[in-house]
Specification:
The chain is α+β, with helices and mostly antiparallel strands. Helices cover 25% and strands 37% of the residues. The protein contains 5 helices and 10 strands; from the N terminus they run E-H-E-E-H-E-E-E-H-E-E-H-E-H-E. The protein has an 8-stranded antiparallel β-barrel, surrounded by 5 helices. Strands 5-10 form a two-stranded antiparallel sheet.
Length: 218
């Protein structure tokens, strides 16, 4: 089960960021693996996790997250049916990372999800992974883009279809992998190969490339 925990600082996001890394770097348990931590331009810190079940997530939050210095609040986001998309071999590593959250009518959930995983993206904006979110927003997209204007245009295109009611875009300032091997295995296990991903087209992509290799120093 993949989940995100958003952590909000009492006083300073950089202090919180340092506290998260001090607490979670090298952490492993039988039931919980922190994949990576990222800091958004909105100053919250997100920890991506693989958890055995909801009880494991609860225990991790109560026993590990709650002790992080300068933490004011948390927001837990279970990700349902996450899928990862292959990335082009020649994408520049300077591309930034962004997330888009989508709100839609329930009858349009699956149609939007299917259209996004089958869409063929270019070199200026790429969908790295997608999942159902089922909260205030219904779908979660993690993207790579050359600039924020590309992300805004993409979000605007989605809302113009009228199937997407609302979007929320967040830029990511920095990311640190906490468990590279575990993350790579998890991502490859859930890698989706679109219907057009075959023949000569397939040779343009590297299925080993990960979103966490872009837009942030490691």
């Amino acid at each position: 089960m993949m989940a995100l925990i958003r952590l909000y600082p009492k006083t300073d996001s950089e202090r919180l960021w340092s506290s998260v890394l001090a607490e979670l770097e090298g952490y492993r348990s039988r039931d919980v693996t922190p994949f990576y931590a990222s800091q958004s331009t909105e100053d919250f810190v997100t920890v991506s996790l693989n958890v055995k079940d909801p009880n494991s997530l609860m225990d991790f939050t109560n026993q590990k997250i709650s002790g992080i210095d300068d933490l004011a609040d948390t927001h837990t986001i279970p990700l349902v049916k996450p899928l990862f998309l292959p990335l082009l071999k020649d994408m520049p590593t300077t591309m930034g990372r962004y997330t888009i959250e989508l709100k839609a009518h329930p009858k349009n959930y699956s149609g939007i999800y299917e259209s996004l995983i089958e869409k063929r993206y270019g070199r200026d904006l790429v969908l790295a992974y997608i999942a159902y979110k089922f909260g205030e927003y219904d779908l979660f997209l993690s993207l790579l883009a050359t600039n924020q204007e590309k992300v805004k245009d993409f979000a605007d295109t989605l809302t113009k279809t009228k199937n997407v009611l609302e979007t929320k875009t967040t830029a990511i300032k920095k990311t640190l992998l906490l468990a590279r091997d575990d993350w790579d295995r998890f991502r490859l296990m859930l890698l989706y190969r679109p219907s057009w991903f075959k023949g000569e087209t397939e040779s343009l992509y590297d299925i080993n490339l990960s979103i966490t290799q872009y837009g942030a120093p490691f």
